[in-house]
From TrEMBL:
PANTHER family documented for this protein: CHROMOSOMAL REPLICATION INITIATOR PROTEIN DNAA
GO BP terms in the entry: DNA replication initiation; regulation of DNA replication
GO cellular component: cytoplasm; plasma membrane
Protein name per its UniProtKB record: Chromosomal replication initiator protein DnaA
Family: Belongs to the DnaA family.
Lineage: Bacteria, Pseudomonadati, Bdellovibrionota, Bdellovibrionia, Bdellovibrionales
Gene label: dnaA
Length: 476
């Protein structure tokens, strides 16, 4: 019986132990129990529970200790991460032990569990069940989001080229691919395009795509159901893992920890990972340092805010897809006016097309201006730093001049930082310009304030709420 095969303990023992001398002596059993007990201290509670607890002593022969785990995946993982240390711990107690052999015995874990639990079907030992589970974990790809419908321009050229490389390369060209940029600029579109193209080109590969939010939801669900093994097995068995909007797990420590291990396991196996976020790895403040630095190991590609040319290109491509009769002047007008993001731009186009459909009128520049009145007004309205300072002072009930003063008391310094943050977010002013408006402060002070508030918004829901309320008052 090879160490790869899976069978019951009884069948395994029968073959293995024809020669009774393979059975561990009482002394070896005591030694193993001691070592096993110490693994928790050595590697920590989480690792112990996830990986090392099921280790079961099976045999001892010719200086070899043979221990079993229930799955191949666990065996490989323990082999590469913990086996050397475990052997060392054994050898310290008995120098005759020179080798640790980890074998797969499916029911090793069952034998260790209560009768009732042992009777439950074991999901993680069935490949089909894992595949099915993956299907559930993954979100479907939107058929509209393909490479064909993605318009390339200067702001997204790098991200697009990197995404294409992943499809074209026979192996993993860089790991991970990290795509970042503001909302509605095409990150999700690109990820779906990668996923769909992968599935088409390599139907045998397991490609999963999910949002970081869904990852967290599944993680918590598995924790509650005490079914972490299936969760780990499922994620570690994929060929391509795509996780959208990773900023969502900012401040969620346990989820980050789990993701970090999943990430490492897949990178170790040379599996492709694609991640998106609204910021560069170094700016994801709610993420642990080690995770942030690992995210930047591969290729980091940004998507810049759109340019007029790109917006026009997207509108033209949309016009063709919709097969709608829209004058060039209307597209040019929209490309000029709706600059916030592509999602809004598409929304504006859809609205005028729908309006023309319903009213059975031709689309003209006039009808466009009419239909989009509210949207265009919002875009024409420019928020000023003065307005922001006034609203923030009002909200926190401090004097307006404290926005400019040198006072450092927390009750005025914090609102001032919030105002600087909003100025950066809601206006096109540069950091030095903002600094000047706040009593001639240095641009590094503004930068610090922006980061500080971002950090606080993750940790402190009160601040996050304050910022949201003020933002609404300013933009609504
Ligand atoms: P993000 O995930 O960055 O917030 P999305 O990928 O959801 O943004 O994009 C928002 C909308 O804009 C989608 O409908 C998408 O198809 C469209 N879009 C964004 N960039 C492009 C592009 N370069 N070409 C075509 N459509 C785009
Ligand atoms: Mg998105």
């Amino acid at each position: 019986m090879s160490s790869e095969s899976v069978g019951t303990v009884a069948a395994f023992k029968k073959e293995r132990f024809q020669n009774d001398s393979y059975l561990p002596t009482q002394e070896i059993m005591d030694l193993w129990n001691q070592v096993h007990g110490e693994l928790r201290n050595e590697f920590g509670e989480a690792v112990f529970r996830s990986w090392l607890k099921p280790l079961t002593l099976q045999a001892a022969y010719h200086g070899t200790l043979e221990v079993s785990v229930p799955t191949r995946f666990m065996r490989d993982w323990i082999q590469s991460h913990y086996a050397a240390k475990i052997l060392e711990m054994c050898t310290q107690r008995n120098p005759d032990i020179r080798r640790l052999e980890i074998v797969v015995v499916q029911s090793a874990m069952m034998a260790d569990q209560s009768q009732e639990e042992a009777q439950k079907p074991k999901a993680n030992q069935n490949v089909n069940v894992v595949a099915q589970e993956l299907q559930e974990l993954s979100s479907p790809f939107d058929p509209r989001f393909t490479f064909d419908t993605f318009v390339i321009g200067k702001p997204n050229a790098l991200a697009h080229a990197a995404a294409s490389r992943i499809i074209e390369s026979a192996n993993v060209p860089f790991n991970p691919l990290f795509i970042y940029g503001g909302v509605g600029l095409g990150k999700t579109h690109l990820m779906h395009a990668i996923g769909a193209a992968m599935r088409q080109k390599y139907p045998e590969k397991r490609v999963i795509y999910l949002s970081a939010e869904k990852f967290m939801y599944q993680f918590v669900k598995s924790l509650r159901a005490k079914d972490m093994m299936s969760f780990k097995e499922a994620f570690r068995s994929v060929d391509v893992l795509m996780m959208d909007d990773i900023q969502f797990i900012s401040g969620k420590e346990q989820t980050q920890e789990e993701f970090f291990h999943t990430f490492n396991a897949l990178v170790d196996q040379n599996k492709q990972i694609v991640i998106s976020a609204d910021k560069a790895p170094s700016d994801l403040l709610g993420l642990e340092e080690r995770l942030r630095s690992r995210l930047a190991w591969g290729l980091v590609a940004d998507i810049q805010p759109s340019t007029y040319d790109l917006r026009l290109g997207i509108l033209e491509s949309k016009r063709t897809l919709l097969n709608a009769n829209i004058p060039d002047a209307v597209l040019e007008f929209l490309a000029l006016k709706v600059t916030s993001n592509i999602r809004e731009l598409e929304g504006a186009l859809n609205r005028i097309v729908a309006h023309a459909d319903v009213t059975k009128q031709l689309i003209t520049l006039e009808s466009t201006q009419d239909v989009l009145q509210d949207l265009l007004r919002a875009h024409d309205r420019r928020i000023t730093i003065d307005e922001i300072q006034r609203k923030v002072a009002e909200h926190y009930n401090i004097r307006l001049q404290d926005m400019h003063s040198a006072r450092r008391a927390r009750n005025v310094a914090r609102p001032r930082q919030v105002a600087m943050y909003l100025a950066k977010q809601l206006t096109a002013r540069s950091l030095p310009e903002i600094g000047r408006k706040f009593g001639g402060r240095d641009h590094t002070t503004v930068m610090h304030a922006v980061r500080k508030v971002e950090e606080l918004m993750v940790e402190d829901t009160q601040i996050a709420q304050d910022v949201e309320i003020i933002r609404r008052a300013l933009t609504g």
